[in-house]
């Protein structure tokens, strides 16, 4: 009996636009709580933003309730679930948050999911924002987009797995494997910010792959005091030659970012072997850091005899352009004869790694991921 081809395995579930179930979602941050509702994978009702009241637990819980009440009142169907992203550390499966960073009011442990279940009588799901961003891009973003383009090109290659990187105030990660989030035994999978930096092994990866890293690199190269360094958006404008400033330092800051992020992706690829999507505030400057990122992923390391060995076995493709997508999907099919028989077997001997930028935007992808995760959990129950 012939084994099923790998491409026949389960892929991330596509959203059903005709699904009438409504899920209330929240993207929680240290400053604001952003509430929304989705139906059929689309935003419905009226979104709502309230302060997170990070230092006042009672006020924070009051705003959690008020926000979900407002959004629920703006839709025309009773919601079936609440699903949201909340900053960790947390016991996500049990819905308990222990946050001592941007939400210090939750530092002693707060059973947020159970609190909302009791208040609204709805199943409530809590997850990491990087994980939900990954699931959103896997269900309605880059992964299905790439697979559609592959099908249109007549390629038999399909992507089933996705590794997501978010670049902003910190470095976040998430992964979807065969349509399911990779959470780990302690809900701590893909915490890539804790990896060693590709630029200095004694430094956390996040220190070279975040907003502060770009500002610090520009300040160092331009000999500007750090507290006077421009924002990354302004540094990008300098790099593009649109505003005055040290253009070499600006380009160098983003090249340094690309090298650092590329090292993180190369490490993750050794375990995940997945399509890569980049989101977050810094992703808008992808044209400035993507060349260095791709070069970093494909850099060589040394074997025991000093021979250079590619860091990953893949050829890397920039999926932001039609040319990159076409090259990624170009046929490499090869037929191999079955020993002592007349049959031949088709195979694709080359490993390919596609890297693209979020099609949905981090906030919307996170909301879509929260929606998809809730429906997966309800169905599995």
Labels describing this entry:
alpha/beta, disordered N terminus, 381 residues, globular, 6-stranded mixed sheet
Which SSEs are present, and which pair or pack?
Blueprint: E1 22-28, E2 32-39, E3 42-51, H1 57-73, E4 81-85, E5 90-91, E6 96-97, E7 110-111, H2 112-120, E8 124-127, H3 129-140, H4 142-152, E9 161-167, E10 171-177, E11 180-181, H5 211-222, H6 232-239, H7 247-272, E12 275-279, H8 286-297, E13 300-302, E14 308-310, E15 314-318, H9 322-329, E16 334-337, E17 344-347, E18 351-357, H10 362-380
Parallel strand pairs: 1-4, 4-8, 9-12, 12-18, 15-18
Antiparallel strand pairs: 1-2, 2-3, 5-6, 6-7, 9-10, 10-11, 13-14, 16-17
Please give a structural write-up.
The protein is an alpha/beta fold. The chain has helices at 57-73, 112-120, 129-140, 142-152, 211-222, 232-239, 247-272, 286-297, 322-329, 362-380; strands at 22-28, 32-39, 42-51, 81-85, 90-91, 96-97, 110-111, 124-127, 161-167, 171-177, 180-181, 275-279, 300-302, 308-310, 314-318, 334-337, 344-347, 351-357. It contains 10 helices and 18 strands. The strands form 5 sheets. A 6-stranded mixed sheet has the order 11-10-9-12-18-15, sandwiched between helices. Strands 3-2-1-4-8 form a 5-stranded mixed sheet, sandwiched between helices. The longest helix has 26 residues, at 247-272.
């Amino acid at each position: 009996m012939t084994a099923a081809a790998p491409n026949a395995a389960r892929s991330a579930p596509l959203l059903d636009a005709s699904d009438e179930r409504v899920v209330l979602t929240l993207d929680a941050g240290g400053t604001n709580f952003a509430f929304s509702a989705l139906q059929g994978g689309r935003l419905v009702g009226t979104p709502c933003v309230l302060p997170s009241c990070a230092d006042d637990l009672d006020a924070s819980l009051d705003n959690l309730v008020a926000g979900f009440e407002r959004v629920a009142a703006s839709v025309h169907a009773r919601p079936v679930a609440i699903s949201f992203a909340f900053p960790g550390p947390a016991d996500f499966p049990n819905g308990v948050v222990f946050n001592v960073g941007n939400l210090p009011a939750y530092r002693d442990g707060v059973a947020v999911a159970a609190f909302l279940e009791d208040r609204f009588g709805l199943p409530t799901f809590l997850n990491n924002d990087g994980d939900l961003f990954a699931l959103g891009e896997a269900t309605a973003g880059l992964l299905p987009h790439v697979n559609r383009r592959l099908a249109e090109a007549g390629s038999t290659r399909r992507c089933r797995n996705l590794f997501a990187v978010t670049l902003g105030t910190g470095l976040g990660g998430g992964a979807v494997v065969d349509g399911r989030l990779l959470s780990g035994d302690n809900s701590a999978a893909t915490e890539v910010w804790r990896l060693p930096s590709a630029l200095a092994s004694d430094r956390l990866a996040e220190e070279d792959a975040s907003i502060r890293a770009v500002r610090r690199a520009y300040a160092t190269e331009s000999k500007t005091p750090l507290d006077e360094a421009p924002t990354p958006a302004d540094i990008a404008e300098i790099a593009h030659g649109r505003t005055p400033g040290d253009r070499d330092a600006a380009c160098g800051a983003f090249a340094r970012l690309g090298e650092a992020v590329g090292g993180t992706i190369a490490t993750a690829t050794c375990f995940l072997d997945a399509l890569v999507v980049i989101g977050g505030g810094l992703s808008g400057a992808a044209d400035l850091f993507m060349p260095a990122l791709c070069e970093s992923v494909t850099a060589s390391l040394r074997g025991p005899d000093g021979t250079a060995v590619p860091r990953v076995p893949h050829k890397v493709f920039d999926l932001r352009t039609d040319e990159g997508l076409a090259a990624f999907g170009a046929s490499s099919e090869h037929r191999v004869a079955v020993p002592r028989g007349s049959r031949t077997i088709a195979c694709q001997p080359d490993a390919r790694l596609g890297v693209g930028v979020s099609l949905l935007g981090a906030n919307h992808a996170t909301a879509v991921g929260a929606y998809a995760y809730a429906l997966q959990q309800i169905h599995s129950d």
